[in-house]
């Protein structure tokens, strides 16, 4: 787009003063709030669309064309109600932080300028802002949310508790979404395309074997199973697996329980033991913290010395 004769960005003082008023107490004093790592100017600016490049950190990969056209028509009639957010890279050069749909719809509507908040943010802050903004405000599908959560954890160095606080979700909800990324690709794609629901996927993820997961998934699609039916099938599979494991164990139950109790007392945590007819199996010693792990290692070292 030729921007040589484009207008310079225009200040929008009216709405800016309104925003400033929201940040003041009724007596005119400043609110004492926790400082934000992202500083925004107190007035908005109208920016030429040709000066704005899209957000490289945009978590949404696909946009509904019909919904985009409907938004464009609304913008033609009502204008932009909610400004986009950008960061300034240089003179007449901006990068979108949030508002991808509004930006694209404005182009379809034939606008030349768009109201925007200008913020200062580095790449990591921008990624975090973009992901959280989209998770909270956009109708992302389950896989897009899961990928956004994972990126916030790995690329923004957030713990699940911190992530939950940022997006207003508890840790269990966050973990349920992240677990979806362990599903086979064919199931992830079907969840993304709304072939199956989040409820279906949450039931399938409780099956350990990927091949069994895919077999069950095919039945769900072919026979149009409800979430409740899938949950029932998963419970039946778990019962069958547990029964098969019990049949393979040759050690007397009382002996196993006695050994488990002894080891649990020794390590200060609940120990589980499994064994088959060839006397092959495993002993699991769980720990929930570094302190518990240190205690287990101390017992092992004492026994070895």
TrEMBL record:
It comes from the Bacteria. One of its GO terms (molecular function) is DNA binding. GO terms for cellular component: chromosome. The keyword Acyltransferase does not apply. Keywords: Chromosome partition, DNA-binding. Residues 1-36 are annotated as: Disordered. Residues 45-135 form the ParB-like N-terminal domain. The keyword Isomerase does not apply. GO terms for biological process: chromosome segregation; positive regulation of sporulation resulting in formation of a cellular spore. It holds the Pfam family ParB_N. NCBIfam families: parB_part (TIGR00180). InterPro entries: Chromosome_partition/occlusion, HTH_ParB/Spo0J, ParB/RepB/Spo0J, ParB/Sulfiredoxin_sf, ParB_dimer_C, ParB_N. This is ParB/RepB/Spo0J family partition protein. Belongs to the ParB family. PANTHER family: CHROMOSOME-PARTITIONING PROTEIN PARB-RELATED.
């Amino acid at each position: 787009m030729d921007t040589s004769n484009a207008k310079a960005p225009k200040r929008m003082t009216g709405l800016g003063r309104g925003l400033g008023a929201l940040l003041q107490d009724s007596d005119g004093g400043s609110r004492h709030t926790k400082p934000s790592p992202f500083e925004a100017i107190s007035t908005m600016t109208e920016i030429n669309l040709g000066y704005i490049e899209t957000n490289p950190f945009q978590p949404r990969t696909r946009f509904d064309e019909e919904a985009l056209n409907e938004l464009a028509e609304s913008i033609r009639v009502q204008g932009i109600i909610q400004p986009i957010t950008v960061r300034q890279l240089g003179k007449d050069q901006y990068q979108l932080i949030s508002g991808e749909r509004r930006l694209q719809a404005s182009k379809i509507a034939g606008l030349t300028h768009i109201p925007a908040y200008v913020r200062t943010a580095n790449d990591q802050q921008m990624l975090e802002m973009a992901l959280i903004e989209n998770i909270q405000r956009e109708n992302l599908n389950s896989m897009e949310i899961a990928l956004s959560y994972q990126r916030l954890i790995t690329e923004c160095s957030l713990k699940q508790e911190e992530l939950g606080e940022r997006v207003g979700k508890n840790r269990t909800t966050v973990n349920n979404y992240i677990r979806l990324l362990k599903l086979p690709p064919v199931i992830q794609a079907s969840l993304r395309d709304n072939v199956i629901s989040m409820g279906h996927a949450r039931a399938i993820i409780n099956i350990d074997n990927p091949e069994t997961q895919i077999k069950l998934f095919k039945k769900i699609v072919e026979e149009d199973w409800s979430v409740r039916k899938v949950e029932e099938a998963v419970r039946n599979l778990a019962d069958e697996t547990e029964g098969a494991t019990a049949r393979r164990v040759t050690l007397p139950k009382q002996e196993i329980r006695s050994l488990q109790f002894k080891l649990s007392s020794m390590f200060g945590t609940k120990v589980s033991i499994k064994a088959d007819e060839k006397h092959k199996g495993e002993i699991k010693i769980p720990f929930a913290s570094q302190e518990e792990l240190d205690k287990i290692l101390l017992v092992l070292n004492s026994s070895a010395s």
